[in-house]
Amino acid sequence: MTDQHEPGQPHRRIGRRLDQPSTPSGTMVVPDERVIEVEHHDVDPREESFAELQVAALFGVGVLTLIGFLVCYFAIPIRDQLGQYSNMSLGGCLAIALFSIGGGFIVWAKKLLPHANAVQARHEFRSSPADEGEAENTLLAGADDLGLGKRKILRRTLLGALGLFPLPFVVMLRDLGPLPHRSLLKTGWRAGVRLVDLDTKLPVKLGDLAIGGIQTVMPEGFTDVDDEALAPTMLIRFAPGQILSQKEVNWGVENHVAYSKICTHAGCPISLYEQQTHHLLCPCHQSTFDMSRDAKVIFGPAARPLPQLQIGVDDQGYFYAKGPYSQAVGPSFWERR
To answer: For residues 149 and 170, what is the distance between their CA atoms, to the nearest angstrom?
Structure first.
């Protein structure tokens, strides 16, 4: 490769042959040669220093926001507003970090790297040894043009930003575990616990519910529905002879039965009850359960009936649970049939 350069003119590197005789304006290809024009401009050292500070500042913002991501991940609780504040903080920090690091590279390329126009016509697919050598030289020249060796502040801030960048993704792997094991079977219901109204938290007494009525109940002593998301249960009263499942009759008391309020498809709360047909409809995906036939699925994507809670009545006439749910409550998943 030879260089042809005159003062005040673009720097021209001449290499291997190209078959295309003409190229866009500003660059020419002569027979048997490839022309690369490197535009040389007089750069004010103060502007170059300012651009270097801009890039370093953007990388620095990336470092700070990545650290902020880690702080928000561990410091902001996810119980408040269903994790709304945590999600906004984590998303905001990660977005600013990505924008800052990307912006730093853009400013670096626009203001600190030399600009060159290279034109090459199509040639055979396999590169010749000369092309391979030229590509290697070009790569090495490009690495030298980056100036990482002499621009220490850029090198340090870049290494800091790229070094911290994988940490948010590594930390988020923590949310993949631990495995739930038997925690999905813990609903807050146990033997002897009274059924209390969801809103008033008062015990429910035999005779409080009218025929055809439905009431959402929780285990006595509960504090927050979000903390016991698998506990909501429906207490339904049928007219005599309307229950068609003997198991349902045996697990109920005087035509009162209790079933989980959590849909077995996607876990939506169910509350749309039709007295005449005894059908219970999930508003999310229209799964329909026949409550007179042990909550059998008659329509929709739900894969199994709603679990029934076995109940009784104590000496004072209040409903209580005879034990926890005998099967897992909530949506179906890969290890549940």
So the answer is: 30
Locate tokens 């626009």: which residue? 110
User: Which residue is listed with tokens 């631990």?
Assistant: 178
Say if residues 17 and 122 touch (Cβ distance below 8 Å): no
- Number of domain units in the chain: 2
- Res. 130: pLDDT tops 80: yes
Edge-to-edge, what's the strand order for the sheet holding 279-281?
Answer: 272-274, 279-281, 288-290, 296-299
H helices of 165-245, where?
167-172
Percent of the chain, pLDDT > 70? 78
Q: Are residues 172 and 192 in the same domain?
A: no
**Residue 93 carries which side chain, given as an amino acid letter?**
C
Can you give the residue range of the structural domain that contains 303?
Answer: 184-321
Q: Are residues 271 and 188 in the same domain?
A: yes
Query: What is the 8-class DSSP label of residue 322?
Result: S
The span from the CA of 135 to the CA of 153, in Å, is 29
For strands 279-281 and 2-4, give the pairing. unpaired
